[in-house]
Amino acid sequence: MLSISFSPLIPAYGLWALGAVVALLAVLALVSRGPVAILRAVALGLVLLALANPALVQEDREKVKDIVAVVVDRSTSQTLGDRPAMTDQVRAELERRFGSLADVDPRFIEADDGSGDDGTRLFAALSNGLADVPPDRLAGVVFVTDGVVHDIPSSVEGLGFRAPLHALITGRPDERDRQIKLLEAPRFGIVGKDQTIRAQIMERGGTGSALVTVRRDGQVLTRQQVRADTPFSLDVRIEHGGTNVVELEVEGLPNELTQANNRAVIPIEGIREKLRVLLVSGEPHAGERTWRNLLKSDANVDLVHFTILRPPEKQDGTPINELSLIAFPTRELFQQKIKEFDLIIFDRYANQSILPSSYFENIVRYVREGGAILVAAGPEFASYGSLAQTRLAPIIPGQPNGSIVEQPYKAQITDTGDRHPVTRDLPGSEQSPPAWGEWLRIIGSQVQSGDTLMSGANDLPLLVLRREDKGRVALLLSDHAWLWARGYQDGGPHLDLLRRLAHWLMKEPALEEEALRASAQGRDIRVERQTMAETADPVTIVAPSGQESSVPLTESRPGLFTAQVASRELGLHTVRSGDLITFVSIGPANPRELMDVFSNTEALSAIAEATGGSVRRVAVAGDQSITVPRVLAVHSGTRFSGGDWIGIKPSDSAIVRGVSVFPMALGFVGLVLLIGSTLAAWLIEGRRRA
């Protein structure tokens, strides 16, 4: 390839200025001397040309192949129906057709799901795949996709190239699918209050209505028929603190694309306004302040505390108007407002005829309907005034045997306690004997039901927990927990023990003795199975696609079995173990990739047509065959597609192998031309004067 190049010997502005002077002198010479001045102008022009330093450049070029990018969509929506097979067939056919073009080098780029919840990002994959390709070498781009693309540029300028873009759409126009779309989903809710969820059923090829099932933490709340394409509302009660997983599931259609988007999950964080605790101390004693300090230190606890200083039978003749005592509001607390409390604590309380039998029946009913009671026993528990001798007896897990053992001992965690979240891993329990101080008294009792978590002197039960219908009961058979709080013999973990105990009674999910939990760590699912049994059965994990897998568990600590498994799918996974169920989301709970799964030709039409390309389906309704258009090279024009073909735009890209430069205004030839023109001008002008 031959061309002319200039390498001025003086700066460009000087060359232009000199050119202007030469042009002016030539015009003046022509005006004053006539045509003979042309030779002077030629001589000055040769001087100017010499300063411009022209040269002939000969390049040895080698034509290179044009690049055609083929982006193959492998996102989640491309795994539905027969799209994977269609995609593979289209790719194979494009490989064959581009292979027959001698001057084309096809580059196939695989595009997976975007990170996080970015969806399908074909243009980002195209940019990354062509990072080493100059834009003028790109002859065309072909997308093999279902049309569900989430990073389409707003204009052609955002593409970064000027080659035609074609999209070959997989999927079929007669696809059927139904999905549920969330319109309003609360993130937080007050425990015991209702939260409103708004959603809508979207469908193509459906029936116009569908049955929606509402679950909370795996338990069915309601089922109702809902019209499609019409927003509807649901009220869901937040039952407990922590995450309440609400699931909306719509029944599927026959032969629909996927049922992975038939379910929407709303994790709602339950927040307690205040934990209301009623603490009733039967008499002033050293351990009373321990309970009060513990409960008052928690900002989430609203404590009501009464200490009985003057029982009814104590009459000293003091006039009522001179007493500074507050009457115990028994009727208000144990009849009118008993259900407002989350926990009732009887601290060294003896039956002193303050509470009539009907009030104890109210307490039993309160527990069985979901309330909680803690009996912190002292010597009175072994006396005639014991609560175990009242109508509370059916729910108290132990009956006193009349003995009171007063001797130093270290509280021991039982085998059952090693497995229970309330007492497992208490600080100091890792040693034998435990690294905590001694207690000095324990009340002898015969456990009738429940789990004994701690024992004391002579292996007597010290801490017993029991479930009673929907409620819970705890029995602490010593009043010396305060010794740990006061640092006696270096104290002990009184805060951990008493706080865990109170929170278990108030149904803290993290302290459930039978629980199933799952969490996501990147693409891995970590499963924890808390159980009081010696072994744990394998858990079943159901992927968003419906594929089930059984995962064995390994005991990591007493009562705690774990497993970690890698997930191949994004979306919500269901984990089951017997009657227990939990959910874990890899990526977002409701992935963007599955929110709209219908293949379409509209999304990419504008950007493709702006480049001169086209968007077309490779399959039609009712036909199982695949049609891939022919590929032609179009050297000129603005349209690069036809009825059965798509076009690419060849470029003139080449690699320069060598360059030869031949100066034109320097050396002997230039000197001869300059001297010749000057001499000719002198001779002609001299003859003219003669």
TrEMBL record:
InterPro entries associated with the record: Class_I_gatase-like (IPR029062)
Keyword DNA-binding carried by entry: no
Keywords: Membrane, Transmembrane, Transmembrane helix
Record's keyword annotation contains Transmembrane helix: yes
Domain of life, source organism: Bacteria
Residues spanning the membrane: 12-31, 38-57, 661-684
UniProt-recorded name of the protein: Glutamine amidotransferase domain-containing protein
Organism from which the protein derives: Microvirga terrae
